[in-house]
Amino acid sequence: MYNRRHSMSRVSLAKTHKRAKIAAHRLNEICGVLVREHKRLHLVPVKNVSPYMLSFIITRPCLKTAMAAANLNSNDIVGAYHSHPLSEPVPSEGDLKGARNRWLILIIPCYKGYKISLWYTCNGKCKKLHFSTIV
Ligand SMILES: [Zn+2]
Asked: Which of 21, 31, 108, 115: disulfide with 56, CB 3.0–4.6 Å?
């Protein structure tokens, strides 16, 4: 996973970024999972059921619904994404605690000047990865 090349759809990223910025007006986060299909990572949006601002919760039923709608295989989930309405696109302590080991974390920042970033978790630590966008 760590050594693999990661690419995502430019259109999908732009749509996700737009949704994140709209949610950020109410200090809400958006979230979803990353699904690997061949060499591409798909962003599958999942309903955020957190009752609190600036947080996200992915429940099993919501994930199941989202995966069925996307027609993708749950076994191919390799990570998750969420937005940071205010903070920089770096995984928080909570993000790392909530992530699986050897897991990808994509963070969609909403604040001007910050760029979308991809991270890889390993034994409670994380490392920033490069990714490319494709049509
Ligand atoms: Zn976070």
From this structure: 31
Residue among 104, 96, 88, 90 at smallest CA distance from 123: 96
CATH annotation of 7-134: 3.40.140.10
How much distance in Å is there from the Cα of 91 to the middle of ligand 1? 5
Q: How many angstroms does the Cα of residue 98 sit away from the middle of ligand 1?
A: 10
pLDDT for residue 4 is more than 80: no
**Domain range list for the chain:** 7-134
pLDDT in tens, 11-61: 999 999 999 999 999 999 999 999 999 889 999 999 999 999 999 999 999
Q: Average pLDDT in the 67-84 region?
A: 95
Question: Among all chains, which residue has been given the structure tokens 């963070």?
Answer: 107
What's the 50 CA to ligand 1 centre distance in angstroms? Answer: 13
